[in-house]
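Deviations from the work plan: none for this task. Representative record:
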Amino acid sequence: MAENGTGIGAAVKRKEDIRFITGAGRYTDDIDQAGQAYAVFLRSPHARATIGGIDTAAALQVPGVVAVYTGADLAADGIGDLPCGWLVKSKDGSDMIQPPHPPLAVERVNYVGEPYGIVIADSLQAARDGAEAVAADFDDLPAVVDVATADAADQLHESVPGNQCYDWELGDKAATDAAFADADHVASLDIINNRLIPNAMEPRAAVGDYDAASGVYTLHTTSQNPHLERLVLAAFVQVAPESRLRVVSPDVGGGFGSKIFVYAEETAVIWAAGKLRRAVKWRADRSESFLADAHGRDHVTKAELALSSDGTFLGLRVKTIANMGAYLSTFASSVPTYLYGTLMAGQYKTPAIYVEVRAMFTNTAPVDAYRGAGRPEATYVVERLVETAARDLSMDPAEIRRRNFIQPEDFPYATPVALTYDTGDYEASLDKALEHIDYAGFAARRAASEANGNRRGIGFSSYIEACGLAPSQVAISLGAGVGLFESAEVRVNVTGSVTVITGSHSHGQGHETTFAQVVSDRLGIPLDDVEVVHGDTARSDYGLGTYGSRSIAVGGSALIRATDKIIAKGKKIVAHNFETTEDNIDFTDGVFAEQESNRSMAFAEVAFAAYVPANFPLDELEPGLSEKAFYDPGNFTYPAGTHICEVEIDGETGVSTIVAFVAVDDFGNVINPMIVEGQVHGGLCQGIGQALLEHGVYDDAGQLVTGSYMDYCMPRADDVPSFTVDTTVTPCTHNPLGVKGCGEAGAIGATAAVMNAVTDALGVKSLPMPATPETVWKALGGAG
Amino acid sequence: MEVTLTVNGASHTLDVPDNALLVEVLRERLGLTGTHVGCDTSQCGACVVHMDGCAVKSCTVLAGQADGADVTTIEGIGTVDALHPMQEAFRDCHALQCGFCTPGMIMAAIDLVQSTDDLDEQGVRDGLEGNLCRCTGYHNIVRAVLAARDNM
């Protein structure tokens, strides 16, 4: 691996940065189409109501207003519902219940901010004025807000008795019950995993255009996966067939999951563009992002760990109620099931595990994947419970983990919850983290804090995640409605430069750099000779975009497959040139050389020969040098690590300050350590945000009371520390780069580490998140 | 109303609605889309530009207030071939990921460095408290600002 060069393993500065630091980035809101109109959405002010009538007459009189459409207009035009892409089955084998989800509400609204109409005008101001002039009658109904009691509340959807989407289980109930019956000790915990609002800094936006001459629709939008967007809009919502629908996702300002999903707004915008034969542009105000982006987390859980007296884990029982919000967002059903229950083994040899999850509808914004998606929730359950067990048994929290870790010789390791971990060395990460945090010195640091009237605590989180979502065959058998492969194309240009086209998408991850590093390394050509193209359905083959830390593990593997084909084709061309066979040709460092001779051709020469085929035997050798691959992973990848947080709590104010945070992660091989560290930093900040600051709160009437940056506490620069980040490496065994993915680890591990530290400092078993100064201050009083 | 303002060294006289915001003029009238809008409560700082040398949130400045002012945006502080030291430091330190908060962050950071003596890590964290970033966890932004401090 090249530490100083530009190849795999080098901390190459990012190619994309030049445009971002000079203001030349091109985000959706920076794109204007000739003659475009502007859209403003009509949004429900009620959490639950029937729509009596919508009077648009006055709005249509507002100067500049072009059209007002409601849900009825879309329905009349045959526009279908927004579908959920993963069918989960209940314990009894029945399918989950998916209520109708029209893009614009027709008969009733089910959460504050739900769109029920769209006003389109010549200017944004006119559209806003038009929206103000719409008079809608609502018959307000009592809102169902509390997820824990939603089963006994009013029914939101006619088709969903008890507001229950599904009642799912995983694991061996009988074996787990038996483990508990034999246990010396049971540690138990009631947990609320607080609702988060994703808040990518770029609000969602869409510019829809329709070319009447060709019948082609073009949608520029803030999507993490433009092909999925096109598939849903074409196949399910039925705006237009895929061949006449182009989705472009230009620079995207962060996603964290919230831009995976197909939303009402871009659906209405692209449909309206066709209706009006005019481009239509919409950009969310931040308040709309708060109301109508899919939220994250929001679980109520009871968890129990059965142990023997020496701290050996015998069984784990988890019962979770997961909030789906008012409708099923695109992948909502999979998050608290296959991305949650399957992770309950953590890094441990717990022999028996049983997980039950009930997914409920409430009158709140839909909940779906947010950075980590299910895995942070699982880690929070397991790692808070392990810490609780250690305290119950007066064991060192590092020691109880060490005693139960799956050991290197145990891999591949089949867990009791459906996954098979390929590789790992969990003690290596724990040991490194203990060293970085100076665990031995903690007692003295705590004593010093206490001498000053403060509290100090330390908290561990030894997390595991499943990334690079996994064989399509397995996922589809479990209900996935899409494949989980990735596409890649390596197009060698005539003079030897290379255009790489990937179905993955970058919205901050730096693929234009890392993917170029991989290809330049493999082909032995300069980094500057490789350009990476993504985010345009007209330019790349069908791909699944970027989510779940999948891009390098799946998209990168597809790239390797395509470059291998390029090298194989190159050898054929060279063999033809040298009148020998391709197995006599070696390819090293960008040069094709004939074995046992001094004849060779550089990569660029081979490229030129491919496109100037003077005497190719055309029945055996085609001109050109351009190859594609679709890579379907053989398994998930399993990044894992240990995070340790040390907090000091002001004894008078309850303010928690993170004095040290160490993250040691095993991501397998690393392409660009600078980018990997940056991904970890960002994830840690979001994990810390959940623990100490962030909480999406609805009042009893279903009004979102944290609907702006004045009310929802985002982590700011003075809320978080500088981090100590390090890695260990056990290469993934089943993909060609040996990579595991790094995008979510920080957010998965950090939250439990922080809360373990805060509860340790306070000497309390548990504390609700976020552990705000007020919450902590009250606990300080309670703890005496 | 008519306003005259200098933006990145060029003078513009524009007829704008009374309620036009500076950020709207920059983005929509002058095509300077490097300045971003990330919220509607003046909290996120994605829209920070310099007005007469001071960092301002351009979503909270009326165009009329900028009449006669000298405005500098992210497009005006350096070029691809001659980056401002703060731009250089952001790239060197990997202080950006999605890039959306970056222009505002860079403009705020330049003002912070220019207006603060003995700037240290805590000073950077306190000084950039008005600029939200969801990607970087601020770690590398702090490093970048401290690195640029030494080169400005």
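Chain A has a mean pLDDT of 96.
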